[in-house]
Design a protein that fits this description.
By secondary structure, the chain is mainly β. The protein has one domain: Metal Binding Protein, Guanine Nucleotide Exchange Factor, Chain A, CATH 2.170.150.70. Helices cover 12% and strands 38% of the residues. The protein is globular, with a radius of gyration of 15 Å.
Length: 141
């Protein structure tokens, strides 16, 4: 990972740092029950692929949240860090970790049929329902 292309983020207490080579500015939002329980609302995530270096790994707790994914958070301060796909080890990092990213665009909403009625987004995006997500991961795990 070249120094010029590295994006660095950290948890609230600084015990975990994440160094990321590439961040896709087309972010996703997940409305599944697990994400909403984990974050208190929808989970906003930027796709970062596999070129992510974790510093302070001893402070990261991994939760096995589904047959296809796991979630990481700081064991000291509780900051939600990432959602990682098990089969590819591809990271989806919490968008809030990168407050100065430019050119962001919401591109996809996952579990769109589970989104509660008490919030909405004004922009149009691609959407995948629970059935579509389950079928996708059944074919790709």
């Amino acid at each position: 990972m070249s120094e010029s292309k590295k994006n660095t983020a950290q948890c609230l207490c600084g015990s975990v740092k994440l160094h990321v080579a590439e961040i896709n500015p087309r972010f996703t939002v997940c409305h599944c029950n697990t994400c909403r329980t984990w974050t208190g609302g929808p989970f906003f995530a930027v796709q970062c692929g596999t070129d992510v270096v974790l510093e302070g790994e001893g402070n990261i707790t991994i939760f096995d949240s589904s047959p296809w994914a796991e979630r990481g958070f700081c064991a000291k301060c509780g900051t939600n860090l990432f959602y990682r796909v098990k089969s590819t080890q591809s990271y989806n990092l919490s968008l809030g970790l990168f407050p100065t990213l430019q050119g962001l665009e919401m591109d996809m909403q996952y579990f769109s049929d589970l989104k509660p009625d008490y919030y909405c987004f004004s922009n149009q995006t691609q959407e995948m329902t629970e059935a579509e997500i389950m079928a996708y991961f059944a074919d790709n795990t």
